[in-house]
Specification:
The protein is mostly beta strands and 95 residues long. The chain contains 1 helix and 8 strands; from the N terminus they run E-E-E-E-E-E-E-E-H.
Length: 95
């Protein structure tokens, strides 16, 4: 496990089984959730899960484990963790 900006970085994995069982590792915390979307922060950035009838089945933040069930329509990363001092391409162009 590496450290990134003071946060312990674990292996990150997303596994979706038959669009109704979602397992994620490397989870830091759950931001928001309801039956149509779940937002989790992972070692690789913010991850939004969209669907119907979503329920959190298992959450272990000590080990970074998360399992949800329900009909999953999409899994979207909206932010990527950057290494310390590394700027994005847009920031380099316009910064």
């Amino acid at each position: 496990m590496d450290r990134l900006d003071g946060i312990q970085k674990r292996e990150h994995m997303v596994s979706l089984n038959s669009r109704n069982q979602l397992a994620i590792t490397g989870v830091q915390y759950v931001d928001t959730f309801d039956d149509s979307h779940i937002v989790v922060h992972t070692d690789m950035g913010r991850l939004t899960v969209k669907g119907h009838g979503l329920k959190i089945q298992h959450l272990d933040l000590d080990h970074g484990e998360f399992v949800a069930s329900g009909e999953v329509d999409g899994v979207i990363y909206s932010q990527r963790a950057l290494n310390a001092g590394q700027a994005s391409g847009w920031k380099k162009l316009w910064g």
